[in-house]
Amino acid sequence: MTISQIKYFITVAKCLSFTKAAEQLFLTQPALSRHISKMEEELNVQLFVRTGSGIRLTPAGSSLYLGMTELYEQYQEQVRKARKIQEGLSGSLTIGFLNNMNLADFMPLVYHGLKQKYPNIDILPLRGSFEDLISGLYSGKYDLIFTIQFEVENKESLLYQYVHRAKDFIVMSRFHPLAQKETVTIDDLKNELFVMISPEDNPESANLIHEICREHGFVPAAKYARTMEEQALWIEAGMGVTILDSNCTLRMNPDIKFYEFDSHWDPSMVVCWNQQNYNPMIEVFIKKMNEVLDLEDEDLHGLAMKAE
Questions:
Q1: What is the rounded CA–CA span in Å between residue 256 and residue 259?
Q2: Residue 67 and residue 45: Cα distance in Å, rounded?
Q3: pLDDT tens-place string over residues 85-138
């Protein structure tokens, strides 16, 4: 039995006339009669009784009419929902934000702009570590993530776009002895303890810091934090120094000192997604974000684009 057959049956049952039903369905009466006869043969049930004055439903036909009407209405509703989702009018989007990344200065603008145009969209923001965000893109846990550029630039199937250009800073508590200086350089950190993110979470970050220290002639003493929250806690507690980008939430803490320096990597904020995720809401979100933040001229990057 097809959806068309169900539609034909419901229409005939409402009209109790093959002629009127055929007109509504834009079919010839003989063609409609054949469809109903095939349906009766398939079900092995007589649906209508032909009388001299017209037709009427059999008891079995009446029972089927009630059930099929409800089923057809549910089908139409599901189709409407699917089309809305496909058009980006409704649906859900799970977005992962890197721990300690500041999103308060841009995400509310994007969220309210999106909800104003698409009120049925459901957005779920979550915090995650470097490893969690990347693995979540591949597993489907996240539709989009906001993270640092160097973390995603060589990942297969991932596309990304710049959201905010950032710089790197040497970071420490304002009570650290070095914080009394007007400027601090990498050379000033030779005897300092570096608080780094664990290589298990993000091997790139620790490697990049070790590399720049070697270029300045020393191997840094390192203490590895399991999470960025733990890293921030240790810096707030004055337990060492670190290197962070300008998008981190510690920038809002008046008791933390930031000294700008030129790093060899790109710490800019990017939005990233898996090219194999076909959620239509991704494109809708990116388009609205670019409009709200005036990012329409930003290019797409990533290994997935190179493979096309």
A1: 10
A2: 15
A3: 777 677 899 999 999 999 999 999 999 999 998 888 899 999 999 999 999 999
